[in-house]
Amino acid sequence: MTDKSHILIVEDDLDLAEMLNAYFRVQGYDVKTAAWGEEAVRITRDSAPDLVVLDIRLPDIDGYEVCRRLRQHRRTQDVPIIFLTEKRDRVDKLSGLELGVVDYITKPFDIQELRLRVRNALRRANQASLTNPVTNLPEGPVVDEKLNGIIFGETKWSVLLITIMGLDTFHELYGFVASDDVLRAVSLMMNNAVREVGSANDFIGHLAPHDFIIVSDEEHLGPIRERIEMRLRQSMEYFYPLKDRDKAKQAMEESRLKLVIGQIDHGSGPHADLDALKQAVLGSRELDV
């Protein structure tokens, strides 16, 4: 690597810390270690790492508290953190995920697996401002650039909004793997619909983690919307784990998971700026699928 990624390993088992330090240095990373939680926090204040491998059980403050402090400081609030711990209980994993931990590895672990998880976490962090880590669709500055372009462009544009409502509750009930599968399934339906009935200039992205948009023209957006709505209606119950398939209809009636669609076009303006256009798009939600 020409520009080395900086990893901080917070581990009070000195033999394990030394082994990880040597291993990741050989892999081309710049590595620092800390055996105490307070020490780890001080190190990040002096120089923010690109990633933290963090044990939960530490001699002073625990890994949860270290994580909270990193998330509260502007300089380290977005640093990816991987928990490395002996704790295996589901509640411990959920506690870490609630704090924004990107991955969770239990001891004993496979060093090659840890290496790949570190590599993948760093890649996701480097791409975070450009693409959604679950769907790989553009978000952030890329979406802003596209929307800014249509505000001041001369084309007769249309924007379709698809929002997944209740996904946070769905996540709590079925876990992050199932909720990520929903996001990927919806993004796949959108991509297929655009490929089948859209145009080469159509754009798909995220306005927010649970908000998808498609930017197209008046001619193509109608067929795209019709196809997506049809497929979502056919697929809603299959978003639920198989063991709850029989209860899916009841769950949908209880508003656990809904997809809401909205649409605006160039005639809804003029929009003064990007924020005004975004508010108009979000305010167009109108149809429960």
Structural overview:
With 289 residues, the protein is of the alpha/beta class. The protein folds into 2 domains: 6-127, Rossmann fold (3-Layer(aba) Sandwich); 141-288, Alpha-Beta Plaits (2-Layer Sandwich), CATH 3.30.70.270. It is built from 11 helices and 10 strands. A hairpin with a 2-residue loop joins strand 7 and strand 8 (211-217). Helix 2 packs parallel to helix 3 (63-72) and helix 8 packs antiparallel against helix 9 (218-235). The model has no long low-confidence stretch (mean pLDDT 85).
What's this, in brief?
The chain is of the alpha/beta class and 289 residues long. The chain is built from eleven helices and ten strands.
Over the alpha carbons, how many angstroms does the gyration radius reach? Answer: 22 Å
Q: How many domains in all?
A: 2
Question: Could you spell the SSE succession in H and E letters?
Answer: EHEHEHEHEHHEHHEEHHEHE
In one word, what is the shape? elongated
Report the CATH C-level class of the largest domain: Alpha Beta
Structural class: alpha/beta
- Looking across the biggest beta sheet, what order are the strands in? 2-1-3-4-5
Number of strands: 10
Biggest sheet record:
5 strands, parallel
CATH-derived topology of the largest domain: Alpha-Beta Plaits
How are the SSEs placed, and which strands pair?
Layout: E1 6-10, H1 14-26, E2 30-34, H2 37-46, E3 51-54, H3 63-72, E4 81-85, H4 90-98, E5 103-106, H5 111-127, H6 141-151, E6 157-165, H7 167-174, H8 176-197, E7 203-208, E8 211-217, H9 218-235, H10 248-253, E9 258-265, H11 274-282, E10 285-288
Parallel strand pairs: 1-2, 1-3, 3-4, 4-5
Antiparallel strand pairs: 6-8, 6-9, 7-8, 9-10
